Structure formats: structure tokens, C-alpha cells
Amino acid sequence: MLEFEGTQCLNSALWSKYTTTIINRMNKTQKRSVSPTSFTQNDTDTLNTFLDNEKEQAYANPWHRLDKALRLNRLRDFAEKEAVRLNLPEGDLKNLNVVLQKGLAKGQLSSKATVSYDSQKQEITEIKALVMHRNSSGNMLFQIVEKKSGVTFRKPKQSSEPKQNSEAKATEAKAVTKATDAQK
Q1: pLDDT, tens digit, for every residue of 44-85?
Q2: Would residue 104 count as lying in a domain?
Q3: Which of 28, 31, 120, 142 is the most buried (most CB within 10 A)?
Q4: Per-residue three-class SS string for the chain
């Protein structure tokens, strides 16, 4: 919850800029005009209600529309659930979090095709690119596999000459070789 009395740690210019930004956003969404100078207790309650509603609706968007910080939060929640499901020790949980953070930073986990996200439950159901292996010492190894696009080759253009069979080509090559040897 936002406390207005505890704003002494913030300088007044920063605080006024913050409240002005929030109030402008409130004005747009609630079709109501509030000025930053006439901020009353009723407006404080309205601001708190607005912030609570925003907090509840923040994760309701599809995965590709979530902010990076919100995605990171959902990835951490996913890692904790996987740690409980797989009974992972704390070290493996940290490794999983590091792999997921690096994958998000590289853009490997930013598409909705890679991450299955349920916006109704507001949780990640599956990360398709995440591969888990248990090594010989019993530790889990995590890796995000990048899907590489396949290379397609174009067929060479057919020449206007009819194709010769391989025996005819071999005979012709021998004849050319004999002719060059005879000239030497």
C-alpha cells in the first residue's frame, strides 16, 4: 500500500512528479479531473483503489504484452513451482532462475510460441524451450534450446541439354584424358 506520510525520504520534486503522473493516468482511466495541488483524503483513497486495481490487472495481459519486469516475476514464480514439483535443492533453483533471466534478456523467452502463459490464472504453464537434464552427480542442468530455422536449398536450374547417363560421361572423360595425353 502506498503511504503518503512516509514520503520524507523522497525529495519533493520527485514526489510531485510521481503523483502528477499517477493522477494524470487516473484522469484518463476514470474520466475524472484531479489536480495535484488539491489532493484530499478522498483522492488518496481513490489513488489507493486505482493502484490496487492496476496491481490485480497487471498480469491479465497475454505473455507478449507483459512488461519485462512482470515477465521476470512470472518466471520466478514458475521456477519456484518447478522446484517444488521436481523437489530441487536451493542451488538448482538458483541455477534455473539464472538460466531463465538470461533467456529473457536474450529474447529467447519473449514470444508466446516459446512460453505457454495462462492469462486467466496469471501463471506460466510451460516453457517449451526449457530442457532439464540430471547429471551423474545428481544436479539438474537447465538449458534453453533455441529453435534454429532450417536451411532450404534451391534446386539447380536444369540446362537445356538432355541429361547423359553416368556411363556416357565416364567414357567421354576418358576420351578427353587420352586426347590431352596424346598432345603432350
Answers
A1: 788 788 888 887 788 888 998 888 999 999 999 999 999 999
A2: yes
A3: 142
A4: CCCCCCHHHCCHHHHHHHHHHHHHHHHHHHCCCCCHHHCCHHHHHHHHHHHHHHHHHHHHCCHHHCCHHHHHHHHHHHHHHHHHHHCCCHHHHHHHHHHHHHHHHHCCCCCCCCEEEECCCCEEEEECCEEEEECCCCCEEEEECCCCCCCCCCCCCCCCCCCCCHHHHHHHHHHHHHHHHHHC
Residues 67 and 139 in one domain: yes
C-alpha cell at 135: 547429471
Q: Which is more confident, 2 or 182?
A: 182
Q: How far apart are CA 63 and CA 67, in angstroms?
A: 9
The tally of domains found in the chain comes to 2
Range of the domain at 135: 63-144
Q: Are 47 and 4 in contact (CB under 8 A)?
A: no
Residue 176 or 36, more confident:
176
